[in-house]
Fold these 2 entries.
Entry 1:
Amino acid sequence: MALMPDLLAQFLQMALVLVLAPLLTGFVRKLKARLLRRRGPSLTQPYRDLLRLLRKEVVLAENASWLFRAAPYLIFATTWVAAALVPTFATGLLYSWSADLIVIIALLGSARFLLALAGLDVGTSFGGIGSSREVMIASLAEPAMLLIAFTVALIAGSTQLSTVAAFMGSPDVGLRVSLGMAAIALVMVAIAENARIPVDNPATHLELTMVHEAMVLEYSGRHLAMIEFASHLKLLLYVSLIACLFAPWGLAEPGAGRGAMAAGVAAWLGKLAAGGALLAAFETATAKMRVFRVPEFLGAALMLGLLATLLMFVSKSL
Amino acid sequence: MIGRAALLLFGVAALLAVGLLGGALRGRPAGRRLVYGMTVVLCGSMAAAALGQLLDAPAAASVAWLPLGLPWQGAHFRLDALSAFFCFVVGVGGAAASLFAIGYGRHETAPGRVLPFYPLFLAAMNLVVLADDAFSFLFSWELMSLSSWALVMAHHQERDNAHAGYVYLVMASFGTLALLLGFGLLAAAGDYTFDAMRGAEHAPSTTLLVLALALLGAGSKAGIVPLHAWLPLAHPAAPSHVSALMSGVMTKVAVYGFIRIAFELGGEPQWASGFLVLLVGGITAVLGVLYALIQHDLKRLLAYHTVENIGIIFIGLGLALAFQSNGLPAAAALALTAALFHVLNHSVFKSLLFFGAGAVLAATGERDMERLGGLIHRMPKTAFAFLAGCIAISALPPLNGFVSEWLTFQAILQSPELPQWALKIMVPAVGAMLALSAALAAACFVKAYGISFLGRPRSDAARQARETDRFSLAAMFGLSGICLAAGILPGFVIDALAPAMQALLGARMPLQAGVDWLSIVPVAAGRSSYNGWLVFAFIALSASLAVLIIHRFASHARRRAPAWDCGSPDPDPATQYTAGSFAQPIRRVYGTWIFAAREVVEMPAPGSVAPARHREILRDLVWDRLYAPVAGAVEYASERLNVLQFLTIRRYLTLVFLALVTLLLVLAIWP
């Protein structure tokens, strides 16, 4: 059974992203609290929150349809699949070729589509405001993300993340203007997609500027747990994606032994910690912007992505 | 052994006979079932015959000749891989629309205005695809325009429909004129058969001019910006199954015309043609979806969205022209496959969505989304099928719309190899426009579905809606099945399209049948691959796993309660988000420039009891800047020339004499 180790590595990755995603969120929250000179909740608080939500009963609005009940599971599953397809500790996993970077972006798009519909399902004004703003933000963030994908794909000659990561780790890359622009744009998109400050505030409720929290306002119990879990996974996915594209060091190669795998996991944990720390520091230092400033912020990301792609068309070495 | 082209011509003849039958039986309910039942069978068998041609004998073309048309030439027909593919698209679309109409036709108030023309319209579309000489092509093209015009005018008493029909007729004549001139240039030797045009050498300037004329002629029928103005007026005005055919299928027949001329008849492609088509495609995609976003009428939204998809198809065609002109046939095959795949996809999901809109219209009498809502409870099956169509058209995996967009993206990533600077700048810009339109399409269909089917009913009509009949449901679910099948097993579609690429470009995409796990690999395994069914299976598995584990080990208690809405729910459905308010942020981001959007807020003075008012003012700049001046010029000229109507016979004779002398002088001086 030559397939067994490959299959095991793939399932290990699926399990690891699932286990670590709440921890990353807890880590960012803790660090933010420390930066604000609060003690903050424990690192395991997100797990406890999830368990608490899972044990509670679901209170469904009288008008909620089957779509409202099915959406959390589908959103969770889609995000989980997308997160499991990004190389975290190793490249060239068994199913990594079944989807490339464009597919991962589109899978996140599917999850968002369902979430925006779920926000409209009950027919409340808050759900509507959340969905409407979410699709406005996505209408800029998604093209920006695709242009970033174009840039890295043109540099590495592939849209497969494993191939791209291998190329980015090799000395052929060198310093490139386009890569720098793509990195900045990707960070901007990641902030917007994960509903972080300055685009949205993940800690807020009952504020007219909220986006993500307004969409999920009617959810409770296990449904809310699934949606929260999906957003933890999404944060993990973006940090892993940035790490895999712009810091691909320590990734285990295809067919590597257990030692290399363990080193890969350790390197990945280090990258997650660094990414989380940077996010916490950035969020503490910035103020949230008005919702109609967001298009300017994301428009800048879109233009950076376009410029980076254009440079790749002008010369392969830029 | 009778050839497949002849077989399809028999099908066309049978459709014409059904049209006559429809005219005779128009008043009776049995007539409706008979006519639509027969068109289901005929379209289905024609699709099967076309598919057989595509799979069995892809390289060989089947020809037929009839002693009709121009006396010295007759009518030539030919079924090659390209026309077989489009015949298949027409057949599937026609069969689905007819199946839907068996049930939907019950609501028709004037069957006498629909039944005779509907089979005629189907026959004409098949004839366009089969025609192999300019005369038969243009004749069938006109037949297609006129029969669909008659169907648009079926409900001519309704407000705006007469205007829609008039604009459609003017634009259709304009398009045919452009095509007529194009064929005239191609048939310089006087031989109007496509065979002669294929064989002839064309000067580069002729090729470019013919391409521009084909873009005007076929493009106006397909709905490229700025020639789209008639489309969102005419498509929604027809009965819904005809709207589905016009939007889903007739625009594809126009794309066929363009491909036939640009890639085969018009000589060697040039990079400038690729540039032009890319520019038009990109603008069409973005403007189409932005127009769609601000519509409140469900059918009109779908019609505008057709414009967007035509843009995506033309982006693929432009890329293919650019690659082919630079001697990169493999990349051209990828781009053209993406475009043709999108042709198939769009014909399927746009028909599906129009059927859904038709079912809603029949159940509630409403097309205005602001008066719908909550239909997912009252029409659950329609809502499910419509959701499948929305996901597919928004290019989201694992359904089919995503695959063709993914292929187009892969084609864009091939293009840094193009040598021309204009293309090097153009292609990334078009890539950005394509990405933007994909994201906006998702926003547009969140709006369409969320406002019409979700939420609470906004009118009594929506509150009392009932599920539609089983024929309509069968048509919708059949098309949803195709959306899923083509989305998770795209390799088969790509392989079936390969003979058309081989014939047009001399190259094809790599064979997908032998790839492990039924993935698709557009160029090479290291570059990119996508496995639809595996992604689908993973999502289905992990979702079921989550449901299973949670319901087994965690709580499955459930309680119904009033909506929370931050503690202050309002029972009035008017407090929900509306279509207008949903689109407001996007309109604000993009619309100030493109629609010259302005919002006027009138707040009464403190203490005044006058109502506060909020108005939004949107202008269609294409109409204002292009159509209105042309219409004004025509009106001005006709008013000036009006005096000529009231001359004496002596003056008329003088005019005739002067005209004759002038023409003779021109002839004498002409070199």
Note: Chain B has a mean pLDDT of 92.
Entry 2:
Amino acid sequence: MEIILAQTVVNGLMVGMIYVLMAIGFTMVFGIMRIVNFAHGDFYMVGAFLFAIFYGSNGAPFILSLILAVLGTAALGLFIERVVFSRFRGNELNGMIASLGIALMMENGALFIWGPSPRSVPPVASGVLSVAGVVFPWSRLVVIIGALIAVGLLYLLITRTQIGRAMRAVAQDSEIALVQGIRVEVIFPVAFVLGISLAALAGALMAPVLSVSPFIGLAPTLKAFIIVVIGGLGSVPGAVAGGLLIGLIESFAGTFVSASIAEILQFLVVIAVVLLRPQGLLGRKEREA
Amino acid sequence: MMRPARAPVKLLGGAACLALAVFLPWLAPNQFYTHLGTVACLNLMLVLGLAIIARAGQLSMGHAGFALVGGYVSALLSMNAGWPPLLGIVAAGLLSAGLAAALGWIILRLRGVYFVLVAFSFGQIAVLLALDMSDLTGGANGLIGIAPVSIFGHSLVSKPDFYPFALACALATLLFTWLLYRSPFGDMMAATAENQRLAESSGIDTHLTQVIAFTIGSGIAGIAGALSAHYFRFISPDSFTFWESVSYLTMLVVGGRVGVLGSVIGVVVLTPLPEMLRATQGLQHIIYGAVLVLSLLFVPDGLASIPQRLRKARQTAPHNASLRAGTGP
Amino acid sequence: MLRFKVLPALAAALFASTASAETLTLGVNATLSGAGAVFGEGMAFAAANMADQINAKGGLKVGDKTYKIEIKKYDDRYRAQDAVNAMERLILEDKVKYVVGPMGSASTVATQARTNAEKVVTLTMAFTPKALSPQLPYSFRPAITTAEFTGPQLAWLGKKLPLKRVRALEPNDETGQSVANSQKEAYKAIGVDLQVDFFERERVDFVPILTRILASADALEIGGNSPTTAGLLVKQARELGYSGPIFVTGGDVTSELVKVAGKQAAEGVYVHLPIDISRPETAAYIKDFEAKFKYPANGHNLFMYSGLQMLFAAMQKAGTVNDTTKVAKELESLSNFPTVLGPAGWTGRNLYNTNHQIDLPFYVGQIRDGVATKIATCNVEACR
């Protein structure tokens, strides 16, 4: 029983880390640009596809494929930010609706270019690490390590660098940031590209573990939504806590009850959080509307 | 177009459109167009429901979820409890509205974005439950053999029989929405959408206003969902996913969010679009997405705003004043 | 709406001047976009291939007339309501009498009352048992479904392996649900306790569920899953240290499964083999098709092509394309008919009270070194 419990916790934390990557990117884009990006998961999908092409089809080395996949997705993200999202600054509603259009185009564009049949990517690592009866598949450990490194680097970026501080200032209050001379027109694309790059990284890391097809983005997007509501919209620590919590809920409900219950439970947690602690577990209190 | 002539022209145009809609079954080359007309009527109701919510400044990404609830409620009431479909449709509307009122009361206290995310999750959960409770809902295959609507003992089974009923429901919804917008409550909704804090300080209970708008809009969605269940005479969860909510939203945005005319234009323009592109693989979705983004970029107030913009442009042009399309805050 | 009236008129005017031979329009109502497109495209390509071949030979001779085959294909976006719209259009506007599809179960169930009332012959691929019944004289199914193969296949496996408790993992969609139902019956028939867990279709991480169910399973059944999902399940189960037998009682999964799970994890997995590619006529078709369309010939493609071979033969036998009642009768009476998948006839009386279910051989396979090896040949009665 203890082994099952430990295994369940480990499983939950492993899948939770991917959710964390998704949710951080989503919450950053929202916190800074005030855009609810329904296309967030589609950057995950593009990252996964590019990785599948570089690593799976062309045999490029793992790290290089990761970097290329993220850079390629980032370039696409920058283009979309410049052409579309930059025009909706300060208009939350229209920005969000535009992201729905982008999501439609990206998913079906991918279908057009890459076809409907799922691709599989050769595993990066195989075998399992077994510690006291608890199993850690190496293929997943690679994902966890990658995700941890990314989150660590991001932490350094936002706390230690000038651009990171500027981003936090904009997230706090963009008007004051403007007065202080922070160039919002630089911060916005940087934040957007950074946010979707995290999604692309998550996609690329998960590609060998799972499979790649044009419609894999919706599920992680939904997860990111739930996580940021639970953790507090715009809060990066909240995204980390929320992501791990959702991973654990999924793991425990999936192990001990059933998979469908897990989804319904998550929704109930959302309602409970909204009722009891509307600013989210770790969110700042919003100004009164 | 000269100014004094505008009102009669508008009236005449409206009457012509109405006549076209009423006589569609006789004008169309075959019944497929009548079928499309019925689908357009149902879409119009759904879009108007969404428009009412948007009028109060919110966006419901779970709209299809309320249509699903309405559809299943009415279908099950008629199949299992023997209720006449007309009564079931009313019950479906009331239940969807009640659900929206409860959900809205909780989440509308928060900022708009939270509402969007939670309404979205609600839509997902509704589909999930319909899939899961297969003893009741028939699971993924859905329910077949749902009773047709029957009025004074006359069953509306055939397409030309159902169309007038659907059209009457759609027109009633249109009239209701129009009256709602012109009522004092309509002003409150508009004020809430315009600037919540300002509305609050002038004594409007914005929370209540939004909850009521959400309740009415979702209730209409429930009725439309119930109507579609009794028209298609089957219901399955796949017709009420998130992407349906997106397509209603696309119709609303492309047509225009300001008045009722926008919803009508959006539905009339975009209901046939999937039919024109049905033979193409996936292209229709890309076009839908592009239409949405382009209309936001270039006609943010929708197709319905074009005549007005042209007029304004003409009036201001002589004064050399430039008119910028307002996408700003 | 007005624009709509102009279009058909214009089209009619155009076609009136060019059409010299008679045309027979074949409708396609399948999923051409989204995640299900692989299967729908397989069906559409089968129709296109058949039409090309017939037209290249100058047309289809029926009675004293020769027909060029024209295809009208519409996408149902894997939504039953869209399938209804597409079917209405095929019936009302295109006046089609023969339809390839619908593909999904919900789509089929939603349209079948209408197609049968209109006497439209449909070749459905839906796995639901509701797709065939005596009340649906114009609905045929040219695909072997779980209801046909699960029983004989499991009876055979049950004799081979010691099974008491089998745990199944299926997607919570129409395929998963209907597969689970036929599996429950088939396992019960061989005295095995089967417990099914459902998961949401978008789910990709199965480790939690697998952790729970593998603890108490003699075997894992994953028959209702897409090939990729089945591959993921095999991979994740093996990673968790599970070494028992895995059954994939359904679908043509081997190549995808091996790609996703890897050769090592896939070794020994029992699969349903719908198609025997070592059959000369099948191999010849696949080679020809893939050279022409640059697209893999999947199960949906081969089954639909076989069904169309039978349909067109039935038209020729009936001597008419307009009297679909006669054509349906002739189609029903075909037996031992040579198709690309081997000699085919119709079965289904026991399950559906009507013989509208294609009767073709199928096989039990086991994955060895990344390839499915045929270990038994079956028909609806039993495997040998």
Note: DSSP finds eleven helices and four strands in chain A.
